[in-house]
Structure formats: C-alpha cells, structure tokens
Amino acid sequence: KGKAKGPKGKKITLKTAKNSIRVSFDGGLRLDLSKMGITTFPNCILKLADVDELDLSRNMIRKIPSSIENFQKLRWLDLHSNQLEELPKAIGTLQKLFYLNLCNNKLTTLPEELKLLKNLHILNIGLNCLESIPTSLGALSELTEIGLFDNALTTIPDSVKTLPKLKKMNVERNPFPDSANQEECVDSIKCIEMLYLVQEKDLCHSRLKTCQGEKDKLNKLTNMTPSSSKKLSFPSLLTPNSSAKDNQEEWRVR
C-alpha cells in the first residue's frame, strides 16, 4: 500500500484566482488566496504571475514549487501558517521581494539562496523548527526587521546581529544556553533601535533641545546596568499568544 494521502483540500480554479485579485493601497495587484483550505500550490495562478503581492497564508500547503520563480514582480509574499517543511532554491530569484513571511510552518532548514534577496526589508521565520540560521543571511544588507521567535535556536550569527539597517529582532522563546547569551542577542538590537528611532532633521528646535538633554542624561548612566523591566515589543513581527513553546501545537494555526 502507498502512503496515506493528506486532506484533499479545495481546488482553486483560474476564475476563482482572478476574482481574488485586489488593488493594494499603493496601486499594485494583490492576489489573496488566504484561508482557502488549499493543500497544494495552485498551478493555475502561474498565469497571474504579474501580481505584485501574493498571499497564500493560513492554508495547508506542504510545498512551494520551483515555478515560484515566475513571479518576478513580487514585492510581498505571505506564506505564514501552512505546513511547509522546506523552501525551493528558486525563492532566491525573486529579486524585488521586500516582505517575506514564513512564520508558523515546519521549516527545519533555510536555503542559502535566501541571501540573494538583496531588496528584502522584512523577514519573519518565527514559529518553525529551525536549530540554526545560515550566516549567509548577513548578506541581506537592506533587512530592517527579522522574526526568529519560537524556534530551536541556540545562537544568532554575528553576521545577522550586525546587519547595517536592522532595527527590530524578535528572538523570544528560543533555547539559548543561558540568559546572558539571550541578553547579548537582544542588547545589540536595542542599540540599533536607539540609533534609528529619530533623525535630527525630523525634529523642531525645541524638541531637538529636549532630546539632547535626555541624551546627556543617558550618557551619565553609561556605566550603570540598564533596566530590564520593560521588554521590547514588535507587533509587526507576528508573535504567538502563548509563551510556552511546549504548547505550541495547541495554538498553531492550521
């Protein structure tokens, strides 16, 4: 006997896909097939490869085919909350990709080709089964936000922590060897966050004077241990409601 088949899922026709195209806020074309009960990548949408945004989130898709490379105009790709165990190498051909959400899947590895996404600004790979992330992600020089929460990571590569434009990193609920290592990961991002919060040109004279005064106060506290009573919160990086990794299967979106 062969392997047991998974759920059949909903069949998406070209007509259904065309009716799911919307105009995004910036005038681009968005193909929204989220929450459609899809179990396999619908090949019919390859005829709609000129869209700017593709949303296949909250389905039961197990594999993304290499034909994803046909979507050369994609700036925004949302695959969160599926059953993905791997990504095709062809993902690296999507040179215009700005946003990539892979949260809440079953990824155990990431293809080296992700480093080719030179225009990527936001990457969410939280809530997967990753034990490590490739140091080659340090090549994503435009990256400003990255979600790494709820994986099996024990360390974060220096090449990622020191990305030049990185402002936000969520590394919560990973099994770092000790709390000091986790603090080290977060502290480096805290420093980056401070550097990019406000630019002088955006402040009026009185506000600039106030900020300078606060900066002087902070400088006097350089040798003091910073307070950890308030944790950073980055709502744009999807975070699960539960704080217990052991219970993640109970609230994993299926």
UniProtKB/TrEMBL annotation:
Chain ranges of the Disease resistance R13L4/SHOC-2-like LRR domain: 67-211
Cellular compartments per GO CC: cytoplasm
Record has Signal as a keyword: no
Pfam families in UniProt: LRR_14
Keyword Repeat: yes
Family matches, as InterPro entries: Leu-rich_rpt, Leu-rich_rpt_typical-subtyp, LRR_dom_sf, LRR_domain-containing, LRR_R13L4/SHOC2-like
Stretches for region Disordered: 219-254
Composition-biased stretches (Low complexity): 225-240
Keyword annotations of the record: Leucine-rich repeat, Repeat
Name listed for the protein in its UniProt record: LRC18 protein
